[in-house]
Structures are given as C-alpha cells and as structure tokens.
C-alpha cells in the first residue's frame, strides 16, 4: 500500500507563495485521484484540490484561481502551488486518496501572517 508524506509548508506573509509536496512510497501512475486537504484549528478537514490520473483538476471555491495541483508520475510526487496566500489559508495540509482514503499522515503546516 502506497504511503504518502507531506512536506514543504512554512510561514509566509499574506500575498506570498508556497509549494507543498506529497511524496509517495511507490508508483502513483495507477492511482486515479490524489487530493490535497487542509484542516484549520477548530474546523473540519476539507478537500481543497484533486487531480486525476489524466491530469484533470478540481478545486474548492475558496482556492480556485490561487492554488494549482499537479502531479509528477516520474517522481511519484504531487504538488500544491499556493499563490496569493491569505491568513484564512492557515492550516495543516494533508494529501490522501479521495476514492480510497488511507490513514492520515502528519501533514505539513502552512501559516500565513497578515
């Protein structure tokens, strides 16, 4: 079973950018959909972006136009390019498989200061 490990979060000022990575322990070629989720303190975890095996993408309305999800099958890695960050984007970010959820990893913390 493929394990997913998130990295690349950090502290950034409002308007800045970050690009977290989700590295898989094995091939992601055959995985239909991989998603990025986030959970802010006191809030439920939400799905913010999904990418299919063919490269089709979907985004939550709150991040549409600012975030871009991409996958590099050769590196078994999925990225989340986050631009024009806002304080409300502050959360722990996780990757997982929307169609077959795995145990949640430790995530990567993104903090946006105003």
Q: How are the elements arranged and paired?
A:
Layout: E1 4-7, E2 10-13, E3 21-24, E4 33-39, E5 46-52, E6 57-59, E7 67-72, E8 77-82, E9 91-96, E10 108-113
Parallel strand pairs: 2-10
Antiparallel strand pairs: 1-3, 3-8, 4-5, 4-9, 5-6, 7-8, 9-10
Give unreliable regions as ranges: none
Label the overall shape: globular
Helix content: under 10%
Protein structure class: mainly beta
H and E order: EEEEEEEEEE
Number of E-state strands:
10
Task: Report mean pLDDT, rounded to a whole number.
Answer: 96
> Main sheet?
6 strands, mixed
Strand order of the largest sheet: 2-10-9-4-5-6
Determine the number of helices (DSSP H or I, runs of at least 4 residues). 0
Strand content: over 45%
| End-to-end gap | 40 Å
Radius of gyration: 13 Å
Oligomer: single chain
Structure description:
It is built from no helices and 10 strands. With 114 residues, the protein is mostly beta strands. Strands 2-10-9-4-5-6 form a 6-stranded mixed β-sheet, with no helix packed on it. Strand 7 and strand 8 form a beta hairpin. It is globular.
């Amino acid at each position: 079973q493929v394990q997913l490990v998130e990295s690349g979060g950090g502290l950034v000022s409002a308007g800045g950018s970050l690009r977290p990575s989700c590295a898989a322990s094995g091939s992601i070629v055959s995985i239909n959909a991989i998603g990025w989720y986030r959970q802010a303190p006191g809030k439920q975890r939400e799905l913010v972006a999904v990418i299919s095996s063919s490269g089709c993408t979907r985004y939550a309305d709150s991040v549409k136009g600012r975030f871009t999800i991409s996958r590099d099958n050769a590196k078994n890695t999925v990225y989340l390019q986050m631009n024009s960050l806002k304080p409300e984007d502050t959360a722990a970010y996780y990757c997982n498989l929307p169609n077959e959820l795995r145990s949640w990893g430790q995530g990567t913390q993104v903090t946006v200061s105003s």
